[in-house]
Amino acid sequence: MKRFLAIFRKRRLDRELDDELRFHIDALIEQNLRRGMSPDQARHEAQRSFGGVEQVKEAYRDRRGIPMIETLLQDLRYSQRVLRQSPAFTGVAILTLALGIGATSTIFSVVNAVLLKPLPFRGADRLVLVRQQIPKLGPQPMRVAAPDTVEYRKSEVFEEAGAMQNRVFDLSGDGGPEQITGGRVSANLFPMLGAAPLVGRVFSEDEDRLRTRVVLLSYGIWQRRYGRDPKIIGRAILLNREPYQVIGVMPPTFVFPQMPWEESADLWTPLSLSRNELRTYLDNPSYSVIGRLRPGVSIERASAEMMTIAHRIQASFPPQFKAALPSDLELKAFVAPFKEQMVGGSKRLLFLLLGAVGFLLLIACANVANMLLSRSATRERELTLRAALGAGRARLVRQLLTESVLLSALGGGLGILIAWWVTGLLAAALPGNVPLTEQIRIDGRVLGFAVAVSVLTGLLFGLAPALAASRQNESGRRGLAAPSSHTTVRTCRIRRFLQCCNASYLPTRDVRPWVANQSFDIA
Amino acid sequence: MSHAKSDVLQGTLDLMVLKTLDTLGRQHGYGIAQRIQQVSEDVLHLNQGTLYPALVRLEQQGWIASEWGTSENNRRARYYSLTRSGRKQLVAETESWERMSAIMSRLLEGV
Question: Does B76 sit within 8 Å of A50, measured CB to CB?
Answer without folding.
Answer: no
